[in-house]
Amino acid sequence: MADETNNETEVAVEATGAEQGEREGGRGRGRGRGGNDRGGDRGGRGRGRDDRRGRGGDEDGGEELIEKLVHINRVSKTVKGGKRFGFAALVVVGDGKGRVGFGHGKAREVPEAITKATASAKKKMVRVPLKEGRTLHHDGKGRFGAGKVNVRSAPAGTGIIAGGPMRAVFESLGVADVVTKSVGTSNPYNMIRATFDALTDQTSPKSVAQRRGKKVADLLGRGGASAAEAEAAADAIAE
To answer: Is the pTM of this model over 0.70?
Structure first.
């Protein structure tokens, strides 16, 4: 009788231990699943932020932009214990229809620097009036620091006659015919800023006519052209 009681007690203890082990294993698995679920939630939230950022960029931009990397430079910052190296990027962005901007960005890696510069360029885009959608309305001069540039309108078929940094600006702007000359520094930052100084001074006959309270045909007819030619030229003007 005592042996039977001891056997029953041992079986009960073993069963209790097995149930406890299963419970602990279940809790462990539950924690593991919970951890995975939480990790999945965090991953989902991260992806959601990325998607929203991408959709917001599409809504804000609304069009395809032309991005041109003009210059990339390795920079260093002296800190306690040595130097910290990074990269600086200069990017020009335009829509090819009369809007253009430039930006500058720094980061530890090249792709991140380009991304920062592109975002800065998109925020600082300016509109430049174009004649017939292919060239400038009139000649202009720009200056920034030691950089000086001359820009001139050109007939159809001329093409873009410009140096590297300036060429990137006009290609992004959508200009097909222009003649330019850079005098002074060859620093791409100063050349770009001088070019934008010349572009921001550009005006169209339409804006001048509105400012003076006249018709566009009246302004175009002052050069000896007939009234019919002036009207045709006024109709052909596109900003």
So the answer is: no
